[in-house]
Fold:
Amino acid sequence: MRTLRAAALGAACGLATAGSALAQSGLVQPAAIGGPAGAVYQQPVQGPPARPGDLVDAHGDPAVLPSSYASPVGYHGGGYEGGGYTEGGYDGGCYGAAPAGVDYGHGGGYGGGYCPDAGCYGGAAGGPFGGAFTNTDQCGPHYFDISAEYLFYSRDDDAVRQDTLFSTLGFVNDPLNIPDGSRALSGADLDQEDGDGYRLTGRIDVGALSVAEFVYSDIEWSERAFATNDGTTRLFSIYSLYGSATNGPFGVGGSAGPPTGANFEETANALRHELDYDSSLQTAEASFRRYWVGYDPRVSGTVLVGFRYTNLSESLGFFSFSNVTTDPGPPATIVGKSLSVLTEADNDLAGFQFGGDAWITVFQGFRVGAEGKLGIYNNDYKLRQRFQASDGSPTAASEIASGDQVAFLTEAKVSFVADVSPSWSIKGGYELLYMTDLALMRDQVALAQPYGDINNISAQAPYQALQPATVDGEVLFHGFHVGLEYIY
Structure:
């Protein structure tokens, strides 16, 4: 499209292509024009003849155009800085073949790479990243219309603390001294770090060197861990302090002898305990970008300002299933009972961001760049808990915390882009995303106490080591992206 625009501009300015009869006839000048007898006239000084395929002006002289990225003649293609009668120059060959009159076989220089018979990769001769040996528009600003990327993110800290013990195999008398062989289910059993997703980006021209950009991304984490009884020994949960609180208050025989499971019938003497962790990070952006080009057009970039919405949601569920003997019989009546404890944390960040990017063309069709974004947002946070027992008791829902909080978010990327055709490019890189002032789930499931504070459980050391909800949490995500860009 840009090549067509350049051709239309040339036609409007009276440019022709050397090789046509009209263009060639403009180069023929007489040695003398009529005058007094004996007068001698010198033939006008002419530039070197145009080669077939070169653009010429209305007089047949080689034409010099301003920066026209995909044209066969250009500012850096061996003309002003391309080399004269030498082997190119510092910037030889960003925009195309050398004009007539220079050393045609050595158009490149430091900037042009290996350029036989052309200005540089992407000129008349093309190159390995030159879009299948066609002229590609890649020495100017980094431009694309649509981009699709695969994202792989890791979380720098644990959503659920690894040392939080949810279940033991068999009861314990001392919840502070639990043998390793009795540890059945903990936060360490959840692989909470790695998640993957995608990002879609679209750009629309809204003015000269200006675009509106729209971005949507979604990254998901999901993990499950469980523990089962070994046939004879049953499971006990943190909600009864691993069975030590089921027989009565501490110091009055409550920690002595096998637990009866009274008041904890869904979680004590259980057959199966399970942890289900889910999280998502979603972002929607609408920004305005303005291109800039450095003194050397190999360096370019954009500045941006816009609106950003980011949602970080987390949920952790604890599920327990047990068989309870309701009538010893004979025959015994056994009823299966279950309990789920679910904690959800939701952070909705909305506000304005600003930033920009910078790109350097290493050689035609391959560039590297960096981008940064920064913003201050309002975080509309909510932290909830729900209990659901199979027999309806306990069943409750509560909101632990909610409100609005000023939050901070910053994002940084380093990337590369390699052209594979005039329209398609491959991209990849590494990125960081840092967020602060969040309501995080952390230990809230373990602190739930679905049965209430039976036997003064909340005063015991295992509970005191857990952290209640706050709104000063911070998260660092980092990972790579790889995808495709398309210009239509």
Summary: The longest helix spans residues 2-12. Residues 1-35, 67-137, 249-256 have pLDDT under 50 and may be disordered. The chain is about 5% helix and 45% strand. Residues 9 and 196 are 47 Å apart (CA to CA).
